[in-house]
Amino acid sequence: MRSSPAFFALLVGLALLAPARAPLADESRFAIVAGNNRGAERQRSLRFAEYDAERFARLLSDLGFSPERVTLLRGASPDDLRGAFRRAIAAMREIQAAGGRTLLLLYYSGHADGVNLEMGRERLAFSEFRSLLEEAPAGVKLAFIDSCQSGALTAAKGGSPAPEFDLSLAESIQVNGTAILTSSAAGENSQESAELRGSFFTSALLAGLRGWSTTCWTCSPESSSR
């Protein structure tokens, strides 16, 4: 099969999320999980963004992440997120200095306006978010962003297709890369549903990571966009 480096990084990262048959002594996995129901004053408050973040953090625990390496931020502000990045970066550098490998996973659920993450009444620019992610020294970095117009984040610094390469199942999975998966395109809204008690994106993501099949895709009348 053929694939792009970013897609390969995503596949490798998802494989590393799954419980290993035997723990990898040189693999340390960190996660920053943030949710905020509130956005700018013009936005209707979300019902399930913070709950989705809690569900995602619980899933990581089930998948074998060490509790001390999962930072859960409810009602997260930009400063909360910056501080979580600083702590994770310091810990990862210590591990790498000792010869270990690291993985960083970032999950955010909340409002966005196509240029910024709206975290309560404050905003974090997509460009700054990308800079924080790029500063992290992890070999594999995965970001899942569940918000309206979040697809603009992947083009914040401009992108171009990378060369394809041959992928053999026998190859080593030691790879460096960053993959960002968003719930919407740059001009789209993302939706949450009272029937699902969460967003469509996160509900499907959790089901997929657990290996479940999603049984309900009918949006209830009581739904709101992110």
Molecular structure report:
With 226 residues, this protein is of the alpha/beta class. It has one domain: Rossmann fold (3-Layer(aba) Sandwich), CATH 3.40.50. Helices cover 30% and strands 26% of the residues. The protein is built from five helices and 13 strands. It has helices spanning 5-17, 49-62, 78-97, 126-135, 200-210; strands at residues 2-3, 27-35, 70-74, 101-109, 111-112, 116-119, 122-125, 140-146, 165-166, 177-182, 191-193, 198-199, 223-225. The strands form four sheets. The protein has a five-stranded parallel β-sheet with strand order 3-2-4-8-10, with helices on both faces. A three-stranded antiparallel β-sheet has the order 5-6-7. It has a three-stranded antiparallel β-sheet with strand order 12-11-13. The longest helix has 20 residues, at 78-97. It is globular. 38% of the residues are buried. Mean pLDDT is 75; it is low at 1-9, 19-26, 167-173 and 213-222.
Topology at a glance:
Layout: E1 2-3, H1 5-17, E2 27-35, H2 49-62, E3 70-74, H3 78-97, E4 101-109, E5 111-112, E6 116-119, E7 122-125, H4 126-135, E8 140-146, E9 165-166, E10 177-182, E11 191-193, E12 198-199, H5 200-210, E13 223-225
Question: Helix amount, in percent?
Answer: 25-40%
Oligomeric description of these chains: single chain
* Helix and strand pattern: EHEHEHEEEEHEEEEEHE
Instruction: Provide the residue-averaged pLDDT.
Output: 75
